[in-house]
Design goal:
The complex is a heterodimer of chains A (418) and B (161).
Chain A lengths: L13 H6 L7 E2 L2 E2 L1 E2 L10 H14 L9 H20 L8 E4 L2 H16 L5 E5 L8 H10 L2 E5 L9 H7 L4 E7 L11 H10 L4 E4 L11 H4 L3 E5 L10 E5 L1 H6 L10 E4 L4 E3 L13 H17 L1 H20 L4 E4 L8 E6 L4 H10 L2 E2 L1 E3 L4 H7 L4 E5 L6 H19 L3
Parallel strand pairs in A: 3-15, 5-6, 5-7, 7-8, 8-9
Antiparallel strand pairs in A: 1-2, 4-10, 9-10, 11-12, 13-14, 14-17, 16-17
Chain B lengths: L2 H14 L13 E7 L4 E10 L2 E10 L2 H14 L4 H15 L24 H18 L4 E3 L15
The chains are: A alpha/beta (418), B alpha+beta (161).
Bound molecules: pyridoxal-5'-phosphate.
Chain lengths: 418, 161
């Protein structure tokens, strides 16, 4: 059981939630911080900060190898965190949860462990035009090494995947699918359950990049039936330096290790080394123990608030912000998918996104500007960059109003009326 | 800290809306293209050198306001200057934008002193200095420069550390 007792009453009260995030009290340029860069990295609640402090104060040692009290304690806590992740995404077994350094490493692990072993010359890998570079570049590296071919699912102008086109890409050479659950640039929620089902109809395994989904909705990997699911801790209110790869046990067992070193072995001799069981086969070296435990605490925190309540609040923010920004002359929202999380990419006529971001920062508003590590998507949209406001559970309607006022102020600076 | 709002107000009201020397020139003897892949800024600079005097200069491209205003003000500053004066000004501007020098210590900087505020915005320094690197490349007949190229002049200080 979670040791965090719920002090708050059932309804979702954003003012109370904000009390849990010390960084939200910060002033930037003498203005209260308005943090709308949650898709890049979200802020950490006090409960997680305290958990890290407690770990370092009372529980730290290296794991797995020690027989002493602290090593046993740290090992126990680390494995408890694995269990929390398992339950959080409803994996069938804890050994299907691999700790990595982040979503990027999780994807690279599958590329090396699965791709380099099973993908061959002429094989085809399906990606989508929405992917983050971290779910493109590893597959390009593999394609180059093996002589495999990358096929790309297109989108419509709203930023939704064209499922017909996806289905048409399948042929006997199709050997792997890697798709995002949610687009980091546009917020589009992709119909991955159906896409996975279709791929399985062709006996093709599917990796889902869940970096932008897991913080905003409950994810059930067994229900999705995905073969791999990757995400990062720091977008969940956890620390940086920790990520998760979920993989079906049968696939993980068939895969080759990614990194060699301590802990991933059963027996080492110069004649032959045998590998450890999963998940340890993929966890060479001393892992980020504190960060894993911190991620476990972040999951406790999210579950205590409730993923449904979080999704509801964020959806209200999305609807409100979309309506308010739509009213602004000269501002265009990029990405109008029917099914979205609370991410709003936008462009302001005749003003470069970097200028928008720099001037919003003067009002204490943090948005991200640029290509958001999705250059192929930007190219498809005919843009070099956008400004992106991405929301989290602690954002408020007043902050949406401040963003809207901030955008108007930017337009006024450029119109020369300020 | 509100320094860079002044920068925006001054340069945007003026040079972003009415960039000087924007467009092609007739008898270009030197040119270069500059590119900042991080934000997509693109810039072409062409100039006519006559006996070491920059007698014509023009720029074109697509960029953020800081880059465009910097380019516009730069062309005004170096027109009818000798190549050596232009190179000296490039050095002064780079030092200013990177916050290494105080505007007061600079002899030639003049109105460009408004860019001193950019050093507060490390992510935007490259926007301001791209035109200057491109000018340097043009003067030295480099065809292209990029803020992220291997041989990136912006990673090393032009003319030694
Ligand atoms: C969709 C998506 N995939 C992958 C990543 C990479 O995550 P990380 O940098 O934490 O490895 C991100 C982060 O921005 C993302 O948004």
């Amino acid at each position: 059981m979670s040791n965090i007792t719920s002090q708050r009453s059932a309804p979702f009260v954003v003012a109370q939630i904000r009390q849990d995030f010390p960084i939200l009290k910060l002033k930037v340029n003498d203005k209260p911080l308005i943090y709308l860069d949650n898709a890049a990295s979200s802020q950490m609640p006090q409960q997680v900060i305290q958990r890290l402090v407690d770990y370092q104060t009372n529980e730290h040692a290296n794991i797995n190898r020690g027989v002493h009290y602290l090593s046993e304690t740290a090992t126990l806590r680390f494995e408890e965190a694995r269990g929390k992740v398992q339950r959080f995404i409803n994996a069938a077994e804890t050994r299907e949860i691999i700790f990595t350094s982040g979503c990027t490493e999780s994807i690279n692990l599958v590329m090396h462990g699965y791709g380099r072993k099973f993908i061959q010359a002429g094989d085809e890998i399906i990606l989508t035009v929405l992917e983050h570079h971290s779910n493109i570049v590893p597959w390009q590296m593999l394609a180059e090494e093996k002589g495999a071919i990358i096929r790309v699912v297109p989108i419509n102008d709203a930023g939704e995947l064209l499922i017909d086109e996806y289905q048409k890409l399948f042929n006997p050479r199709t050997k792997f699918v890697a798709i995002s659950h949610v687009s980091n640039s546009l917020g589009t929620v992709n119909p991955i359950r159906e896409m996975i089902k279709f791929a399985h109809g062709h006996k093709v395994p599917v990796l889902v990049d869940g970096a932008q989904a897991v913080p905003h909705m409950s994810v059930d990997v067994q229900d999705l039936d995905c073969d791999f699911y990757a995400f990062s801790g720091h977008k969940l209110g956890g620390p940086t330096g920790i990520g998760i790869l979920y993989g079906k046990a049968s696939l993980l067992e068939a895969m080759q290790p990614f990194k060699g070193g301590g802990d991933m072995i059963a027996v080492v001799s110069f004649a032959k080394t045998t590998y450890n069981h999963i998940p340890h086969k993929f966890e060479a070296g001393t892992p980020p123990i504190a960060a894993a435990i911190g991620l476990g605490a972040a999951i406790d925190y999210l579950l205590q608030i409730g993923m449904v309540a979080i999704a509801e609040h964020e959806h209200q923010l999305l609807e409100y912000a979309t309506a308010q920004i739509t009213k602004l002359a000269g501002v265009t929202i990029i990405g109008r998918a029917k099914n979205k999380v609370a991410v709003i990419s936008f462009v302001v006529a005749d003003i470069h996104p970097h200028d928008v971001g720099t001037l919003l920062n003067l009002d204490g508003i943090a948005v991200r500007t640029g290509h958001h590590c999705t250059q192929p998507l930007m190219h498809r949209l005919g843009l070099s960059a956008t400004s992106r406001a991405s929301f989290a559970m602690y954002n408020t309607f007043a902050e949406v109003d401040a963003l809207v006022a901030g955008i108007v102020a930017v337009q006024q600076v450029f119109a020369g009326s300020m | 800290m509100s320094n860079y709002k002044d920068l925006y107000q001054e340069v945007i009201l003026d040079h972003n809306k009415k960039p000087r020397n924007y467009g092609q020139i007739e008898k270009a003897t030197h040119q270069a293209a500059g590119h900042n892949p991080l934000c997509g800024d693109h810039l072409q600079i062409a100039l006519e050198l006559n006996q070491d005097l920059i007698c014509a200069i023009g720029f074109s491209g697509e960029s953020c306001a800081i880059c465009k205003a910097s380019a516009s003000m730069m062309t005004v500053a170096v027109k009818n200057k000798t190549r050596a004066d232009a190179e000296a000004l490039i050095q002064e501007f780079l030092a200013l934008a990177k916050g290494q020098l105080n505007a007061i210590d600079l002899i030639q900087i003049g109105r460009l002193a408004v860019f001193a505020g950019i050093s507060q915005l490390p992510t935007r320094v490259k926007c301001a200095i791209l035109p200057w690197h491109t000018l340097h490349a043009a003067l030295n007949s480099g065809a292209e420069t990029s803020t992220e190229a291997e041989h990136d002049p912006m990673r090393t200080t032009i003319g030694g550390a």
